[in-house]
Amino acid sequence: MHVGIALDQTLFIQLILFLVFMAVMKKIYFDPYLQAFSEREETVKKLYEEAKANNDKVAEILKEVDVILSKIKEESKKILEESHKKTNEEVAEIIRKATEEAELELAKAKEDIERVVEIEKKIIDKTVNRVAQDIAKKLTLEEAA
């Protein structure tokens, strides 16, 4: 008895069956799987590139928004300053007009007071003259009596 490996036909048949099985598995399972994997990889790459391009666009848009916001802030600041200036001018004009009106009313009141004082002086003068005449009459009547 000789112990050794006898090469017979079954080994070759098993080898051929294994190669056929591998070819069938490659055709049915591995090729579609590898194709789907590569397609998915390409899709991921495309999506990554699109996302990167979108990020760049977003960054550019944000810069534009910042520029627009700074312009709007400057314009609103100018508008506020102009409105404050206009309001202050209007207030100053109102105060000036009120002061002028008050001065006119004060002048009229002074004139009215002076007129009343003159009238009262005349009344007092007439009253004093009448009282003096009455006193003089009484004195002359008492002297005569």
Largest beta-sheet characterization: none
Q: Helicity, in percent? A: over 70%
Shape estimate: rod-shaped
How many helices in DSSP terms? 1
Uncertain segments: none
Overall SS class: mainly alpha
User: SSE order in H/E notation?
Assistant: H
- Report strand %: under 5%
Radius of gyration: 60 Å
- Overall mean confidence score, pLDDT: 90
Describe this entry's structure for a reader:
By secondary structure, this protein is mainly α. 94% of the residues lie in helices and 0% in strands. The N and C termini lie far apart (203 Å).
Task: List its salient traits.
mainly alpha, 145 residues
Question: What's this entry about, in short?
Answer:
With 145 residues, this protein is mainly alpha-helical. Helices cover 94% and strands 0% of the residues.
